[in-house]
Fold each of these.
Amino acid sequence: MKRLFLLLLLSLINLYPQEIDSALLLKANELAKEITIVDTHIDLPDWLYDEWFDVSVKSDYGEFDFERAIEGGLNVAYMSIYTSPNLEAQGKSKLKADSLIKLVEIMEQLWPDKFKIIKNVSEIKKLNQQEKILLALGMENGSPIEGSLDNLREFYSKGIRYITLAHYKSNHICDSANDPERKWNGLSPFGEEVVKEMNRLGIMIDVSHISDSTFYDILKLSKAPVIASHSCCRFFTPGFERNISDDMIIELAKSGGVAQIAFAGFFLREDINQKYLAGEEQIKEHLKNYNITPGTDSAWQYESQYWTENPVGSATVEDVANHIDHIVKLVGVDYVGIGSDFNGVGDHLPFGLEDVSKYPNLIYELLKRGYSENDIRKIFGENLIRVWEKVEEVSAAQK
């Protein structure tokens, strides 16, 4: 505890060189251990797929491992089962998703004293007193469903408890916010069946990455509240459809849903966003000119090198808190949470939120702004748990 407190103090000194409240920071660190922290988006499985490494011990590789998670007070970590949109045309999406799920199962098998996969919200309260990281599964990109509701049911049986319906390209389910081609103008006919079956099964519908028209189609159709597992507020990045607009936040709240704020700098600030988007265009042009397929190792290596040579600047803990503030002022404290996108955004994380040990820094910032302990309990986990419970209730009523 003392060691972590000193590390957090050092990290915050750079942010607030003349105004550190050590007593408040200590309170933030203690509160992180008391509350239930749920992070709805951590991209660890794809890392393990590319290169297996020991996540049961502390390392400086990526942003997640058991020891750092315990230091930060993390209780429930949603492992992202991410498949590249490029796999859909190859018919390999489900194969990749199944492989990633298996890797999470291997984590539990290798380190049963440290990790436990959960499939029901009641398991959080039952298992939370143990010093384990509870692993839930969220599928990022619905392509692995591959046009079959039987596949969707299979993924439910394997533990998938939310699905981001698309990623950076439109797919057979719906349109993507990142894709200028709008094939369906929202949900496809099959996508409508997917939404209904997700309601029946008890899988949360994730509206991150999807187009605005898809978002409104889902809200009209879904009987259960929805989540944005890792998104930010478009108010701060005007015209950036990947983030959710004020009207969408209002409608999300009306449905009882929750927006989980991501930590990516290019989601958080307009200046960083503009530099990032310009860089993305240059990267696409390079890949096209050199005939490099996006999503491949070669593409990722070039992209990593590009950002190292062309940094776009770093956001801060304050920027994340600004997005939380915006939602709270717009619709109240019951409709916002956190979905970091750790291991998913490279070097684009905010200063002070570099990995899973740093959640207390965000708690500190919120305490500084006058948030109560009860508010923080809601933001860091209880709001998401409430939605998960409601989704299970809607499912139970249909069975």
Amino acid sequence: MRAYFAFEQLIPSGELKQFVFQLNDAAKIEEARRILASGNQLKAHVQGKVVPRPADYNPGWSFHLDPETIGFFEFQIEVCDANVAYVEEHLDEVGGAFLPNSFWCPWSSRLSKEVSC
């Protein structure tokens, strides 16, 4: 089973950007659909491990999230928070002091929709 979802995040210029990710786990797919159906904004933030390669389903970005590591959160530690535009600009630094273990949890991300690819 495979499904695609998007989250949105404002970048520093004020533009709203979309980031598409893939889920392969039936339970996570159902969780994402429940979040969207309920309008629950508390646990609508997306987290996962950055893979520094583009994915066909996520146009416009040089990286994607490992589907096996994706989850949803309400609260998370500060060290994994970063804006999507900043991650794109500093992709070569991901995994070191910036986003240790390549784990990214953008606090201002909001699960926005299920998409077809």
Amino acid sequence: MTRLLVVGGINMDCVFETACLPRSGETLGGQSFRRAPGGKGADQAVAAARQGAETALVGCVGNDAEGHELRERLRAEGVHIDHVATTTDAATGAAAVFACRGESAVTVVPGANHQLTAAHVRAAEPLFARSDVVLAELGVPTAAVMAAAELAHRFGKPFLLTPSPAGAIPPELMQRVHLFLANQHELTAGFGDGHVDGDEWRALLARWPGRIVVTRGSEGAAHVDGQGTLHEQAAFRVPVLDTTGAGDAFAATLAVHWSLGIPQAMRVACAAAALAVRGFGSQSTLPTRQELQDFLDSTSGQGQLITD
């Protein structure tokens, strides 16, 4: 069983299903509304736990009804939450998610997520010592992420980072990351000039061999290994309802299956992402281990790995 430690954000999502995404100044009628647990750190932790990984989360929620509810939901999913702090200085993080025909637009108010400190992370040192892989994202302060990277390095653990929200990555953090798990926008924001231009992702992968996996939505995922070989993983063709949780399903699954090697772990991660888009909400459709295995067994002819 993989032992995964996740450092990241915890939100309460407000999900609006609409016929189209709203434009500036426009008021639309919606089709449905629901509150649902979210946040990239929480999503990744739940995704890993459902796949059988022993999973712990380092994060922060507010001392409010949403914070208490989210802690209990994480506990019910089997995530260890001893190092999920509670603060009185900010409300629990929240996100407004507009979902329309497989597309989504999200606004996040970080709230308590920005109260997570390096001291909170260092207090979880025993978890770093016993974990197999550490997975983090940038929805919490950089100082907390850097503390996680330093502890992972101290104990010789692979440190994987989802560079979201997209932006420039501090050089000192860049040096500590074993593998970046980025979509094309995050890739160009962190490693290029910020513009997604055709096949620019290929050049960026080649410039950082062994360091990046890029996810490309319906085009699958790709990685250039340390020897300069490009591995492209085709996506699985499935009906798409909501892509909100797909990236987190991918990241968590690749981390859980780290021991397979990146090319094979990408295939399993693409399968998990495919299952995550079958319904609305970022956590409701994250697959269990059995669901993932059954899906892979039933799609043996799809999602084949291509190595150039």
